[in-house]
């Protein structure tokens, strides 16, 4: 199984931006679908965005127009550019290999607060 490690989380003011990275332990070219999930305190984990190897993307309605998912095969990495952040975006963000039984990363905390 591929190992996934997230980075880039932190504390940001409302309206600010963060870029999350997900580094894979091996080439991701054979992984058809990778995604970013988040889990806020007391809430279920939800899919935020995903991207296929052909470049098709999906976004949950609450982040459309603000977040951009991308993947760089050469760097074995996936990214989530988060703009116009809101307090309700506060959560632990996880990357995942969405192949059945695929790996999760350990998560990175994003806190949006003034």
Description:
- The chain is an all-beta fold.
- 0% of the residues lie in helices and 48% in strands.
- It is built from no helices and 10 strands.
- The strands form 2 sheets. The chain has a 6-stranded mixed β-sheet with strand order 2-10-9-4-5-6, with no helix packed on it.
- A hairpin with a 6-residue loop joins strand 4 (33-39) and strand 5 (46-52).
- The protein is globular, with a radius of gyration of 13 Å.
- The mean pLDDT is 96.
Give the secondary structure arrangement, pairings included.
Blueprint (H helix, E strand, L loop, with lengths): L3 E4 L2 E3 L5 E7 L8 E7 L6 E7 L4 E3 L7 E6 L4 E6 L8 E7 L10 E5 L2
Strand order of the largest sheet: 2-10-9-4-5-6
How many strands, which pairing sense, and closed or not: the largest β-sheet? 6 strands, mixed
Helix/strand-derived category reads mainly beta
Helix content: under 10%
How would the global form be characterised?
globular
Uncertain parts: none
- What is the typical, i.e. mean, pLDDT? 96
Enumerate how many helices there are, as a single number: 0
Tell me the fraction of residues in β-strands, as a range: over 45%
